[in-house]
């Protein structure tokens, strides 16, 4: 999908699967010289190459609610004249390299939104940043989450101007078991207790 020179385009509910191919660096979605484009609820699974490449003055775009997976390459790449003010949040980035920023003069992009209640891409209870995984154990898989809010305790720095301050942690469920007590009309069987 090539969005080059167009503004305010929406790419939604798209699934792209690319196996091994002869191209040295295939790109599934190219955002080039575009403003206000939204990539929402997109799944990209690639054997090699970049899931999304944002390049040359692609500013004020949004990538949200998407799964970007590249087995041997990069989930999200920047190149050319530095893209600026793009918002990237609530995505699953599953790749050997999550973000590759190779631009002329790195500029600031937003890697998280304000933490709000809501189901995130990994089933947790907060919308915030992105989930970073890979084939072994990614940043989000291993980060500390001491207050168990589904947000990593430390930020993930991609470069000096690009930081996910609210990277997602695995959704944790705290279960406690309270043994039922026999009450009126209770019947105790071998391995179960039924209370009416």
List keywords for this structure.
16 strands, 1 helix, 2% helix, mainly beta, 196 residues
Would you write up a description of this structure?
By secondary structure, the chain is mainly β. Helix content is 2%, strand content 43%. The chain has one helix and 16 strands. The strands form four sheets. Strands 1, 2, 3, 4, 5, 6, 7, 8, 9 and 12 form a ten-stranded parallel β-sheet that branches. Strands 10-11 form a two-stranded antiparallel sheet. A two-stranded antiparallel sheet has the order 13-14. A hairpin with a 4-residue loop joins strand 15 and strand 16. About 3% of the residues have low confidence.
In short:
It is built from 1 helix and 16 strands. It is an all-beta fold.
The ordered H/E elements are EEEEEEEEEEEEHEEEE
Helix count equals 1
Give helix % range: under 10%
Q: What is the CA–CA distance across the termini?
A: 59 Å
Which ranges are low-confidence, i.e. pLDDT below 50, for 5 or more consecutive residues?
A: 188-193
């Amino acid at each position: 999908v090539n969005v080059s020179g167009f503004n305010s385009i929406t790419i939604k509910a798209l699934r792209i699967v690319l196996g091994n191919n002869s191209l040295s660096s295939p790109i599934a979605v190219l955002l080039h010289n575009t403003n206000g484009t939204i990539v929402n609820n997109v799944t990209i699974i690639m054997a090699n190459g970049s899931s999304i490449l944002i390049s040359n003055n692609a500013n004020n775009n949004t990538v949200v609610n998407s799964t970007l997976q590249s087995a041997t390459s990069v989930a999200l790449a920047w190149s050319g004249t530095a893209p600026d003010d793009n918002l990237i949040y609530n995505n699953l980035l599953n790749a050997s390299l999550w973000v590759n920023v190779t631009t002329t003069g790195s500029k600031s992009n937003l890697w998280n939104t304000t933490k709000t209640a809501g189901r995130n891409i990994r089933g947790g209870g907060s919308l915030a940043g992105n989930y970073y995984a890979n084939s072994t154990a990614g940043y989000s898989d291993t980060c500390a989450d001491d207050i168990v809010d589904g947000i990593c305790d430390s930020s993930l720095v991609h470069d000096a101007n690009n930081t996910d301050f609210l990277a997602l942690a695995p959704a944790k469920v705290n279960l406690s078991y309270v043994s039922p007590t026999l009450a009126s009309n209770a019947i105790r069987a071998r391995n179960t207790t039924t209370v009416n």
